[in-house]
What does this fold into?
Amino acid sequence: SPTVSMDELEHLAQNISKSHMETCQYLQEELQQSTWQTFLQDEVECYQSKPKEVMWQLCAVKITEAIQYVVEFAKRIDGFMELCQNDQIVLLKAGSLEVVFIRMCRAFDTQNNTVYFDGKYAGPEVFKVLGCDDLITSAYDFAKSMCSLHLSEDELALFSAFILLSSDRSWLQEKSKVEKLQQKTQLALQHMLQKHQRGEEILTKLICKVSTLRGLCSRHTETLSAFRAVYPDIVRAHFPPLYKELFG
Amino acid sequence: KHKILHQLLQNSTS
It folds into this structure.
């Protein structure tokens, strides 16, 4: 592992936390203020009675909005823009949705198993018409398990950066450069967890999330290709271009 | 390929 001074780790942690706060889409206070606003039964039924393709399109739009914030987050991480453009794209293609899944825990209410979506808190039944109950259940379970770790915003920021800077993604041109950045981020995360007197096991639990995140994203890709096989014209004409670039 | 992503990366951070 690289030799890094404490100062450097502190500086990186500060940079990543600031980048996260500037690009987190919703402030914690806004989210907490809205938790009492869950969709009413007739609103849930309204989502359930939408045509499948309309709901898919709505979700693609929401995911794309969230991803745009993640792109901004990446750009502000020290070192990211110094990578070659191929690697910036490889990392975002593979990792931006994973960061959206991580960020989902900020907007998740464990008490009633709901997540902030389209203006209110929504349970999994809202997404029924998408026809991918497995993926939805897994995403909710993931958010719930992330919530149970009670990470601070700083820790969440560093974990998101650690995931985004995964050096084992396919097609990286300067793998060792990404590797160094990721190692530094991991050290900064470790340092932060120690500073907050969190046990060693938190880091182990976070590292275990890596494969869960990859599973979630590959299930998303599979679900999208199944949808596209039936509705190719809807995807082509109505899905956000960025979404198609990332997952097409 | 990746036209939008290129564009987003090139836009200066606001």
